[in-house]
Amino acid sequence: MNYLPVSPDSLTQAAQILRNGGLVAFPTETVYGLGADAYNSAAIAKVFEVKERPRFDPLIIHISNVKTLEETADLSLLREDTRRKLFLLAENLWPGPLSLVLPKNKKIPEIATAGLETAAIRFPAHKAAQTLISLSGGAVAAPSANPFGSLSPTRAEHVRDKLGGKIDMILDGGQSQIGVESTVLDITGKSIKILRHGGTPKEEIEKLIGGVEDGFSKDQDFNGQNLSSGLASPGQLKSHYSPQKPLSVFSIEEIISLPFETDAAYLFFDGSARDAWLSARERNSALIRTLSEKGLVLEASARLFETLHELEKCQISRIFAQLAPFAGLGAAINDRLTRASIKS
Ligand code: AMP
Ligand code: MG
């Protein structure tokens, strides 16, 4: 396996691997993706195999300019007002961490979309990703480059640790800037729905196209077994993104009132919450991490998975995590933490 920093040479080599049906892990602004040529069903089958990902979980199709949208989606099936909304979203939020669920173009093989008539399409805001996609033939099917259900990779090292040896190449582009996956927005139905909270806050979408619904209710009782009975987006699985240590989520008031556990790790959203917790303790020797000293939500999201990767390797019994404020990217952070806290 090749493990190379992003450069014109490594990008050309990576694109050639994709054209030949191989798999390349590459950086994006959200998390690292595990890419295959989106038109090659045998290559896509390998993605499912390597990730041990259930075949019912569709991949996101990555493009490198809006012109390629019609190669991957069938826009003629959209109503006029939906098409207007699509262009508003694409003009304002692409390239960026937003995947749009659209009727799929027949050229995209069914295995990529898990048999769905729709495909989630994204134009990433990452120069290396864009170059790789355009050099490789225009469309790359790529889920996150991690084993199914585990923490998403925000550094090339995370990919190497969990998937190294099983794929053809890892392109190292440093740390992912956003650090949580894209927002998945379904615009095919009567009402527009967020299927997964992610790097594009709901508020930014609503500014452009008005109110959108949460397609996911935390109270829904589902699991991998009954997916076919109406789960709109498999990223909605209750248990997902899990570290190898038990994790529980709390408000800061709750964490302060809990009995202190010496062998636990404490993950705070911001420095002032951590200081409030520390001042309520007489003595402590706990492992403490803070996502953003000043409580900056982008910094916190960028560090979320990285910090969980670090903590899962530590000698600790469990992780107590503080929830973020719910606005903006905080919704995506809390979504990941909450799912990480649920046992599958
Ligand atoms: P990943 O790239 O690993 O974060 O996973 C991609 C996620 O995108 C899936 O788990 C789904 O939640 C979502 N997704 C992809 N394609 C579709 C689609 N056609 N309809 C609804 N959700 C989709
Ligand atoms: Mg994933």
Can you characterise this structure?
The protein is an alpha/beta fold. It has two domains: 2-214, DHBP synthase, CATH 3.90.870.10; 247-343, Threonylcarbamoyl-AMP synthase, C-terminal domain (Rossmann fold). It is built from eleven helices and 15 strands. It has helices at residues 8-19, 41-51, 69-72, 80-93, 127-136, 156-163, 202-209, 252-257, 271-279, 297-312, 330-340, and strands at 2-5, 24-26, 33-37, 60-63, 98-103, 118-122, 139-141, 169-172, 183-186, 193-196, 213-214, 247-250, 264-270, 287-292, 318-322. Strands 1-8-2-3-7-4-6-5-9-10-11 form an eleven-stranded mixed β-sheet, with helices on both faces. α9 (271-279) links the parallel β13 (264-270) and β14. The longest helix has 16 residues, at 297-312. Bound molecules: adenosine monophosphate and magnesium ion (MG). Adenosine monophosphate (AMP) binds at residues 57-58, 60, 101, 113, 116, 118-120, 143-144, 181, 184, 195-196, 232-235.
Largest sheet properties: 11 strands, mixed
List bound small molecules. Answer: adenosine monophosphate, magnesium ion
Given this structure, which CATH class of the largest domain is correct? Alpha Beta
SSE class = alpha/beta
C-alpha end-to-end distance: 32 Å
**If you consult CATH, what is the topology of the largest domain?**
DHBP synthase
Strand order of the largest sheet: 1-8-2-3-7-4-6-5-9-10-11
Radius of gyration: 20 Å
Task: Summarize the helix and strand pattern as letters.
Answer: EHEEHEHHEEHEHEEEHEEHEHEHEH
Q: Helix amount, in percent? A: 25-40%
Total separate domains: 2
Which architecture of the largest domain would the CATH scheme give at its second level? Alpha-Beta Complex
Low-confidence stretches: 217-231
β-sheet strand percentage: 15-25%
Mean pLDDT: 92
